[in-house]
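Workshop exercise sheet. Pairs work together: one partner reads the sequence aloud, the other fills in the structure field after running the prediction. Swap roles for the next sheet.
Pair: D.N. / O.F.
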Amino acid sequence: MTRILRSLSLTGSLRALNHRNFRLFFWGQLISVIGVWMQSTAQQWLVYRITGSQTSLGLVTFISFLPVLLLSLFMGVIVDQLPRRKLIIFTQSWFMIGAFVLAALTWLDLVQYWHILVLSFTLGIGSALDMPARQAFVSEMVDDDKNDLLNALSLNSSIFNVARIIGPAIGGAIVAALGEAPTFAINGLSYLAVIAALVLMRLKPLDYSVSRESNLNQMREGFQYLASEKDIMGLVTMVAVYSFVGFGSLTLVPVFAKDILKIGVEGFGHMLSWQGVGALLGGALLIFFGDHFHKGKLLLFSRVLIGPGIAGLALSRTPWISMALMTVMGFSLITQLVISNTMIQTIVPDNLRGRVISTYTWALGGFYPLGSLLMGALGDQIGAPTAALISGLGCLLLLLFRLAVFPNLHKLN
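Structure field:
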């Protein structure tokens, strides 16, 4: 009992918040990400409203993350050479401008589908830099304390999960009452919170001297390290294949809300919110009890859940059952990503952190849009339920692939 109470204390489960820089980032990012989820909900609804096409939904996701697929590995070299705080301030400012541009186009009733594609691609360029920079920056905010790293990454994921509960519900309500433009504008303003938090941080000076090695040689060094560490290679590979086969099915959620469950934009927001509830439960499990679980076994368990969750959503025609399944999917998704990220960051040396983490963000942000595009196209051809069912069954088959190719991942801790 004493051990459990210690786990629930501030110095235990919330100990990463004792670091001033991480505390600033936590609250600033929470405000910003709520705005991001509001915009994501409004944008998906806008795209399906003006196109009526599931392929169009998948294409927006694909275009958003295409730069991540193409540029993330190179961006890892930049992250290892330049101050990460300055890089993140730049990317957050870039995202803020994009939100205001989309708000203006929508407000003036000028927005067209191709505008959304162009903006999504340009913001994706920012994401290709922001994702590895933000992941690598977590260790700086907790003063490179590996004992606090899992806690910090779990708390960082909880930001997205709390926002995933609040943001879609607010976004759906605002779209229903006022339209999409105000939602985009509010998101633009929300970036000011995280930018202010970054400016206020006091960081230890780190050596960001530019290497004399060419960028290509530095990328090769990162790949050589990855190839020499089979455990990291396995973690990155499994993130990639699950992103492609499983996570891409999430692009069909607006279709289920509008055409199958008939619950409208507010119901769509609620589905995303329940996914956030599941993710928050997974994040809370890691925050409060992560040090007491065997990470490899919990990772395997979380992957067992994702296939049945997606298949169940494909078969459900009852809103509350669908929302319960979204909760399961949210739990599975966040636990496997946080645990994979933590395992990688615990193993990798700091001088290679940006390059190795960039392979993780490439696997997640690069293969997820490919899966989204495939699911959107399949949805138009054979229907969203059948496409999602294929995705769910594919995730179950991936368990066999993982056990055959990377049999030792569940032994890691």
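Discussion prompt: Residues 345 and 353 are 7 Å apart (CA to CA). What would you look at next?
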